Amino acid sequence: MTGGEEKQALSPKEIIHQQFGGKASYRIEEVHVSSHNTCLYRCHLQLPEFSVVSNVFKEKQDSEQSAIELALEKLGIQPRNDDYADHITVEEGLEGIVQRIKYIFSNEFLSADHPLASHLRATLQRDGEQRRGLLPVSAIATFDSKIYSLCKVIHPSMDSDPVLVMSYVMKAAAKSWDYVVVSPHAASLGRKNPYPPAIIEGLATHVENIRVEAVHIKCTKRDEEVVEPVVLDISSDRYYLDVIAQKLGLEDASQVMISRAISKTFSGYECRVYSAITKLNSSSDLKKSRNAKASFVCGQDVHGDAIFASVGYTWKSHDLEHEDVTLKSFYRICCGMSPNGIYKISRQALIAAQLPLLFTRESNWRGPFPREILSMFCHQQQLAEPVFTISTAPAKSMSDVLSCYNKIKDESDNQYSSRGQAGMPGSGKGYRCEVKILSKSLDLVFDCSLKKLYEKENDAVQNAALIALSWFSMFFGDMDEESLEPCYTDDDLDIQYNQRSRFKETFPSSRVYELPDIIRKGDLYRSRSMSMPWERKRVQKIANGSLVSICYSVFLKKDSKRGKSLKELIESNEGIEFEVGHGSMNPHLESVITQMSVGQHVRFSTGLPAEALVLAAANDTARALTLLSGLEYNVLLLGVKGPTEERMEKANIVEKVAEGSSQPYKD
């Protein structure tokens, strides 16, 4: 994509798909009208947190469109109208926010099934007369999507700067002086005239006290973060954001910044990062106070201490929803933010498994396919769905390539022919794929086109997705066991990515807001195989391309002064399959397994992977922290399904390509 290309507006249905993907379910109901002997249609649209039902229409398409519009209205999403967006003034946008703020503090909104209405009801019951009924501006900016959409029309960079959204809310509130009171000492708003007593009395319901486990990410003076468990005690007369503010050392909820929803717990509740609203001016202060771990998790700059919790109000209920977040679940969420981590979690093998280097064939791949992983990754990083473009070209079949390869190998000693002179009979067509990834604002983030042709269209798509995943994985090296680097040479790819100056806005959740050294130095395609034991010191009994089944256990192990080792089981699997030779298991484990025989049991020790990975796998995080010394593997080889001769030849070619690409590039 070039800078001059026009950005295409998404249709309402495309917006729903972009937001929810397969989680949006449409059901068309037939409505029979006997008096006219006609059939009308009603559409039921089910989204993760609520559902809508359309009016009846003569056409199915009209009922579906009506349901989509109702859902977008409830979400506060305005389908993009280019003429409106291009011509709206700041004053008109502010006026829209003014009217919305007035509605938020109306009698009608107080009883609405809206998360922000639940926040408002909670503030009306909080302890302390001076703070009662005051709604934090951060809550308005976070939970009212209509205001958020208006702010984005005024200023497109709202996605990366929540403080800017809050500033527009405060400006609009100042224009509503006849209806809304702006707190003089805090970022909170209240209604100027009290609510009728009957409405307030109707809110007085019994609420049980709640204890919620959360994670406290402390920012120390030594430029590092300490992650500890914390308990939020939320009594019936306390607003939960006030409790979080107290844990952060803040006065009240008006000083709390609320992140976007980051991920969900096992029960489906949203997790967010809560921190202090940034009030630092100098760049040195910002650098000293930046909480790198919290910034990594939520995808925006966080300064000072932060709390990671799953607590809040939803569309489903007026009650406060919550679920405990332990250190283990926190580190699993961190792990699941990288492409490699998504694959590890899907295989239930955080220590043993890793995202393969290559996609060879559908039947040998285990876990979610690369295209599916890339879609999940883009959704969680607030990127648009990846776009795959397939092209075809005349190509030789794989059997012809293998025949040519063997011929060259046999004749190379006589120097009779060369690769360029070899005749390669056969005809057909091959597939190549381009994958393009854009930000939600349709700015280019990643664009890669494979030069290599594949026999099957799906193979081209999956390998293109895998290249994109490998590229993005380099931004998460310290969260993975090792950084994934694509096993391809410059001749295989035609790739471009966004400039460093714009990368922070388009890819919000990178741990460090700079491109990794490997990209800055131009060595983007140095192979991960440099650290893989391609030339094994021992005899490899299992051929590349084989499907292997193993049973294994992984223990944290620390030698005791008394002579007896202390061990803690952190991962086990009674039966897991993987393909040899493509990096789908960590190199230590795969190297040992390929030297084993079926039925053989082996025990061996290695060093530690990334600490965060160990804590994500361990059941007892506190005990695991005392045993961070090394790992012990117990492995039983259950079975081996050898590849066909063609598969072995193909795997050998792939391995030799990997050997060649592992050589350092020279200037």
UniProtKB/TrEMBL annotation:
Which Gene3D superfamilies did the record assign?
3.10.50.40, 3.30.160.20
The source's domain of life comes to Eukaryota
Name of encoding gene: LOC108842050
Give the species this sequence originates from. Raphanus sativus (Radish)
PROSITE patterns given in the database record: HTH_LA
User: What Pfam families does the entry give?
Assistant: dsRBD2, DSRM_2, Hen1_Lam_C, Hen1_LCD
InterPro entries this protein is in? DSRM_2 (IPR056755), HEN1_dsRBD2 (IPR040870), Hen1_Lam_C (IPR040813), La_HTH (IPR006630), PPIase_dom_sf (IPR046357)
Q: Does the keyword RNA-binding apply?
A: yes
Protein name per its UniProtKB record: Small RNA 2'-O-methyltransferase-like
Protein's UniProt keywords contain RNA-binding: yes
Q: Locate the HTH La-type RNA-binding domain: which residues?
A: 87-199
What are the alphabetically sorted keywords of the record?
Answer: RNA-binding
Care to name a GO molecular-function term for this sequence?
RNA binding
